[in-house]
Design a protein that fits this description.
alpha+beta; five-stranded mixed sheet; 54% helix
């Protein structure tokens, strides 16, 4: 066995030290990633627990109201004005319950990887106007005026190849949020326009707005800025995550501009699909929707 010279021994020791340092650095990086993932999992579990607690009220409250008011209608002789008022309240509660359930079903579909596109030629002006009509009663309740600058008004072609169901649930949630977070007797502005093969739609409110840090988390599932038993706004924190998932499925983008206490503008941009495009699913296993943003190891 040959003995190492002093210089060779020093060189070998330096090599071993360097290898150990690299291994320690790699271990530190891995540890940080694991800690980050653990925090995200803990936060997700906490958000999910809050969601389950919240959704119980969001479903039970309107359902209880519907049962009680319908019982009152069936059990008493009421004047026409009272009947009309109760019927209106039943419709409002049933609509709220229906929209909550639709979002829950949509979120479950995305998470299971079962969301598929069904492309057709869509009259976008008609789609947007019908969505506005669906939310008329909600806007009327707060005396909010919804203004829509249509494609027809701007001279753009109204027909567009896309998935009408996915686009409608996006517009429905954007407009519903704009109305929900607007001040009474306020105004919400919708605008649609075509540009370079994309359909662009913006929804602008003049409500409470939000801070920049909050804008980075609002698209997370179950995330609500207004939380707790004393929260002043309805919903369960799925709407914006559904918007993001649906827009990504359509190969589009969603952006937000907000000023605190002055309102927000949400803008979506969707590329036109090929008319003969076959339906496809969002992912093989749905994990993109659950753990989006988690670093790979």
């Amino acid at each position: 066995m040959n003995r190492l010279t002093d210089s060779e021994l020093i060189q070998e020791l330096n090599k071993r030290f360097k290898e150990n340092e690299e291994a320690l650095n790699a271990l530190r990086v891995m540890t940080k990633k694991l800690e980050k993932l653990n925090r995200k999992l803990q936060e997700a579990e906490s958000l999910k627990s809050n969601f389950l607690s919240n959704i119980r009220n969001e479903i039970n409250n309107p359902l209880t109201s519907i049962i009680c008011m319908s019982k009152e209608l069936a059990g008493e002789t009421l004047d026409s004005e009272t009947v009309s008022s109760i019927a209106g309240m039943i419709h409002s509660e049933a609509f709220n319950l229906d929209s909550q359930l639709r979002n829950i079903f949509a979120a479950a579909e995305f998470e299971a990887g079962e969301a598929a596109l069904s492309i057709s030629k869509v009259d976008m002006d008609m789609l947007i106007n019908s969505t506005i009509e669906l939310l008329d009663h909600k806007a009327d309740k707060k005396r909010i005026k919804v203004n829509y600058m249509s494609l027809d008004e701007s001279g753009d072609e109204t027909y567009f190849n896309t998935d009408s169901e996915k686009v409608q649930i996006v517009i429905f949630n954007l407009l519903g949020n704009a109305i929900e977070y607007s001040h009474e007797e306020g105004q919400v502005e919708l605008k649609a326009w075509r540009h370079e093969g994309h359909m662009n739609i913006s929804v602008k409110d003049h409500g409470m707005g939000m801070d920049v840090p909050d804008q980075e988390i609002i698209f997370d599932r179950f995330r609500q800025l207004d939380t707790g038993v004393a929260k002043s706004h309805s919903g369960h924190g799925l709407g914006l995550s559904i918007i993001k998932a649906a827009i990504e499925l359509l190969y589009g983008t969603v952006s937000i501009e907000c000023v605190k206490d002055k309102g927000c503008v949400f803008t979506i941009s969707i590329p036109e699909a090929e008319s003969e495009m076959e339906a496809y699913t969002i992912s093989n296993d749905g994990n993109e929707f659950i753990f989006e943003g988690v670093e790979e190891f």
